[in-house]
Each structure stands twice: as C-alpha cells, then as structure tokens.
Amino acid sequence: MGGRRAPDQRGVSRLINPLNLSLPRLGPQFLVGLRVLCNYNRDEFQFAAFRASVVVNMVDAPPVSKKEDSAVPVRGHRYLSSKSKTYPNYWLWALLSLLLAGLVLVKFAQDDAGIMMGTWQPERHDSRVSTLSPMRLSLTLSTLLTIGASYAASSPPIVDLGYAKYQGSVNNKTGNLEFLGIRYAAAPTGPLRWREPRPPGSTTDVQPANVQPNMCWQGLLGGQPSSPFRRESSHTRRQESGSPQSSEDCLFLNVVMPAFGKENLPVVVWIHGGGYFGGSASLYDGNDLTPQAGGNVVSVVIQYRLGVFGFLSGQKIHDGGVLNAGLLDQQFALEWVQRHISKFGGDPSRVTIWGESAGAGSVIQHVIANDGNTQPPLFRAAMTSSTYLPPQYAFNDRIPEQVFHDVVDQSGCSSAPDALECLRQVDVSTLNKVNLNVTGNQFFGTCILVPVVDGKLITKRPTELLRKGRLNGDALLAVTNTFEGTPFVDSNTAGTVTTPEYLGNLFPELTKDQVDAGAAQYAALGAPIDQARAIMAEAIFICPTYFLLHAFKNKSFKGEFAIPPALHGDDVLYYFTHAIVQVSTPWNNPEFVKNFGQSFMNFVLAMDPNIKWDSSNTLPQWPRWTEDGRAETVFNKTEADVPVFRSVQADAGLLSRCDFWESVSASTAQ
Which of residues 243 and 152 earns the better pLDDT score? Predict the structure, then answer.
C-alpha cells in the first residue's frame, strides 16, 4: 500500500524505414537549413544532440564558442510547444532524425569513424557527398531514425504549470503519458495544519513525475463492539502502536493522458475511498480507464488529507483553523484541474468527478457544496460507486466536540492555553498515533473523522440540500453493490446482536421511538445479523444513492453490481482492473469487463452510458432513472458464467425503507 513504482520506460520496439532514397548532391545549401539543429561556426558544422526544447520549438540556436563546441552536450528536456502541450510528437522526431541524417552523410564521406561527432569543410568534401550509394544512405537513415526515436522515448515531455515544470514518463504497457506526484498545494504542515490548502511554492527546476507520491497519514476503521458515543456507554479506548509509512506532505495528484496529439478530451477525476481515514492515489491506475474510453479521456487521481489531519472539527477548529480540510483539498484539486488540465490535453468544461465509498461520499459533498452553486463550476457530471454517507454532524455538535477533546487530551495539549496551536506543534508521528487510536476506537465498521456541516462549504445536511434540489452538476451515474453492508458488521456477533442495539450503536442520536421504528422496518429480513447487515448497507450506502437519484431526477442512471459475492468495493476491480492488489478481476469475463467498464467511460464522454464509442459493446439500453419508472440496470451472471445485463424496477420495499431513513435524517445526521 503506497509503495513506490519505478518509472516506466518505453523502448522503440518497431521502426519502419520506408525511405530507400538516393540523393544526387548534398552540400552547404542543404545543411544551412539545419542551422537550428546544429552548432554553427563559420564554415564548420559540429554535429551534436541539441536540447530538445530548441528542436521542438524551432528556436534558432545562437553561435557558440569553441569551448562549447568541444563539450559533450547533455541530453535536455523536451518542452512541447508554446501552449505547453504534453503529447510526444513522434512524427516530428522522425523528421528530425531524417534531417540529422543529411549531416551525418558528410561524416561518412570523410571516413567511417562513427556517426555521432564530426566536422565538415565544404571546399574539400562537396564532391564526395555526391557519390554516396543508395544502400549506404538507406542504412544511415535507418540508424538515425533509431537513434532519434530512442532519444524521443527516453526523454518524455515536460509540462509547465507556471509554478513548476514536471517531466512525465511513458507507460511501457499502455503507451500513455503518466505524470505522477504533481504537487497541487503546499505542504499542510506546521502552521498550515487545519488551514485551507495554499498554492504550492514556485520552483525553477524540472520536477520528475515518474514515481508515486507520499500517502497521507492513514487511520483505522472502527473495530469496537459498541459505540463510545452512546449516551449510556462506558467504553474505554484502546491504544495502537505504529503508524503507516506516510507523510503529512501529501497533497499530490496523478495525471494519465493518451500519448498522441489529442486535445480537448473529457476528463475524469477519481476521488479515492477509505472512510476518510485511508487510501491513496497509488492504489488506482488511470491507465486502466484510458482503453475503456477508446483512448479519449484524461484521468486525474487526487489525494487529500485524511483522519485527524483532514476532518478534525469542533468550535476551536472553526475559530482558529478550517473545517473539512480534506474536502477543501479536494475542491482545491478540482480548481487545479480547471486551471491546468488543458495542458495535458483535457477540456476543463467536460470534467466528471467519480469516487467509490468515501470517494463517492465526497462526490455528494461537492454536488451540494456552496448550496449547490459553486462558481465557477468545477465539473459537469458526477459518478458514484457505493455512495458513503455516515452521520454528518454540525461541527460543534456533541460528538465532534468530544472527538476534538479526545485528540487534545491524547496529544498532551489539555493544559495548553491554546489547544489548537499546541496541536500544530505536536510531532506528526505522535499525532498519527492519536489518529490511529481515535479512528480505531469507534463502533465496528464505522468512521468518526468525516465531513461535518460547517456552515460555509457545506451549509446544511446532505439529505436536506438534496431534497431541495440544490445541486452542482448536470448528470449522475450511480452504482451500488448488492451486499454493501456485510464487511462492516462483526460476524462474531451473529449470536448476540439485536437490531435495536445495533441501530443505537450505528446512530447514537436516534431516539428510542426511532430505534423501535427502525427495528420494525427490518424485522422481516431474516436473523438479527442479517438485519444489521441490511441496515448498514441501506442506511449508509444504498439509500443515500437513491437520495442523489431523486435530486437529479431525469438526469441520472442507476446500476446494481451483483456479481457474487457483490460486497462493498467488489465493483472497483472491474473498472480499475489493477486496483489495490494488482490482480485480475475476480470474474475475468471479457464481455462483462468490457461492457461494465466502458459504461462509466461512455458516461464521461457523453453523459450517457448508452452513447457508445465501441460498436462491439453488447450492453442493452441503460434506462434513465425517473420518478415514475425507477428503473435500474443489474450487472450479474448466470451459474454457467454467462453475463447478465437486465433492466429492473427498484425494489418497492427497499424504497420504503429509504423513505424511513430520510424521515429520521435529522437524528442520523445525514
């Protein structure tokens, strides 16, 4: 998790030399045209590899001194046009190789010592050039093509962002260009803890963008048998030792773009999940998305502050810092996309945001951000996979305040005159031990350091704003898994759990009457452990998805991923086929993988999964979600391993239970 990956290098495995040419005479007239490619000094031409920025931008090279002539040139970086385009123009490099070949022919005419360095005196060698054979010329051109193309492949392009220049790499499996670890904000350390993200400082050096960035500090999923926030609870905290190999300096993003000459492409921005306490960009490879879009998408994967670093709240944070720092990081990254994605071939007016689990929950936050009126707009469409909506309290409610005081106490700042300033001085490793303790101490399968209603970015509870139709974005595609809740319910409690007890632990602010009403909703759904799994699945993941669908009305599509076991997160490996553990999909059926993955990219391209770029895609018509039709597409398979794609009506009983959860959303803080 979060390991560094070596930069990808793409060698030149195939070069075609269609040029079997015979030139009758090459002399000064031909070589004068190569002045921009060579060091020129009176009647001598020194052949040396020039900085690629000079070649590509066709900047006329000034005369150089004899000392510079004798020096071995250092391979330079490749800047791509005045508009900072970043695709490698291999045709231009092939042309460059041909031009350089003309100069090298002169050296062949003089002697056979080599092809990389030489001098030419026109008055002595003009006649010898005219006698070169077609075979020797063809061999020379082929050799130079190989050298030039190899140089191009080994010197990936640079993009100039104004504050820094980043040099990417070519993925040797896909041929796409990767820019890994681009800094989009300053390090949120020291005095910048719990502050709004700031622009990164400027640097003049070219930054390599060929390794995965540091992860943000990671926390834990709650693992306790009861919630410490139940009013009758006397639960004590456990201590954790150790911490993940992460960094507080982690506000980076990755960009993957097609390699050849495409502009104004749709953009997909992936927000990773992990309960707002874990996850990183390194787990998700944008190269997986490009082929699903026919090479017509630019992908961006972002990181944001997590756990206590990104979602600590309370009155003190409000007064002396910033609430929802992790969400503000995400918004800052989306603003970065608007400013810079055109330099990577993307169209900032055609951005789709997409996330899974807490990433999908983050999508909800940006849909309702700024009362649903973020200006200028940061995206045109949204996609959610397993929308995650835990209790989202007001920043100064009882539970956020208790969490803040727990962090202060465990950090040794309880007696400090300014608790927040003291926290900013705490060593990062100490603070993350507190982070691990606080996050891991929660009720099994839950997270406590999550977004809050801050009165500014998030003005009201999500369900309240969705009900009023206050939305950013014009279209939605949402997918849930059939058994979302199973991994988040302790199977060891199968013989002891009761539904009312489970409800009280999951939503500590429910009244007794509401708990009883909730238990009645699930009484017919099997044993208490099955009821608990259904409650977790529906209240936290599935019903919030339907709340989103209702808000987008006739501009949305709903899917259900049912491939067994259809647990939370199982769908991820079917669009990020190398995600997390870098293994193949659990059910590696080519037709299913293609149809399912392409549906998301079709939506990114056209805001409609039914507008297909691939004519071989066999997915039937995906119906729109409407208040009258309430149709969704189920992705499943038969026992004989035959893909199943079918349209169904949403389950009436499920929708009724979602109505219940919406009716008590003030108490569940959703």
Answer: 152
H, E, C per residue of 219-244: CCCCCECCCCCCCCCCCCCCCCCCCC
Decide if 251 contacts 188 (C-beta within 8 A). yes
| Domain-embedded: residue 22 | no
At 554, which CATH number?
3.40.50.1820
Inter-residue contact 217 to 248 (CB < 8 Å): yes
- 193 and 120, same structural domain? no
Q: For residue range 181-220, what is the model confidence (pLDDT) as tens digits?
A: 999 999 999 999 999 999 999 999 999 999 999 999 999 9
| Token digits of residue 615 | 């004519």
Q: What is the pLDDT of residues 40-73, one digit of tens each?
A: 333 332 223 322 322 222 223 333 333 333 333 3
**What's the distance, Cα to Cα, between the start and end of the chain in Å?**
31
Give 177's strand partners.
170, 257
User: Residue 4: inside a domain, yes or no?
Assistant: no
φ/ψ region of 150 (left if φ > 0, alpha if ψ in -120 to 50, else beta) reads alpha
The β-bridge relationship of strands 631-637 and 556-561 is parallel
Q: Which of 564, 303, 317, 548 shows the shortest CA–CA distance to 423?
A: 317
Based on the fold, state whether residues 103 and 233 are members of the same structural domain. no
Q: Is 483 helix (H, G, I), strand (E, B) or coil?
A: strand
Q: What torsion, rounded to 10 degrees, do the Cα atoms 170, 174, 178, 181 define?
A: -120
Distance CA 346, CA 255 (A): 10
Taking residue 112's Cβ as centre, other Cβ atoms within 10 Å add up to: 8
Answer yes or no: do 177 and 74 share one domain: no
Over residues 6-27, the mean pLDDT reads: 34
State how far the Cα of 273 lies from the Cα of 530, in Å rounded to an integer.
25
Same domain, 536 and 615: yes
With a CB cutoff of 8 Å and minimum separation 6, the contacts of 639 are none
Residue 525, number of CB atoms within 10 A of its CB:
17
Residue 526 burial (CB count, 10 A): 11
pLDDT, one tens digit per residue, over 419-448 is: 999 999 999 999 999 999 999 999 999 999
Instruction: Give me the pLDDT at residue 578, please.
Output: 74
CB of 639 within 8 A of CB of 620?
no
Among 310, 324, 240, CA closest to 280: 310
